[in-house]
Amino acid sequence: MASGGDQLAPGHPRVKSLGLTESLEVGYRLSPRGEAVLAGL
Description:
Elements: H1 4-7, H2 13-17, E1 21-23, E2 28-30, H3 32-39
């Protein structure tokens, strides 16, 4: 069983499918939606 942290690791397909990250030329960043979710934790 994977831990919650594994499920929301940066670059994980689920994070992208939820619209929480944006792809950059190199790497990722939080989307405005991702920032809002993080602020609510």
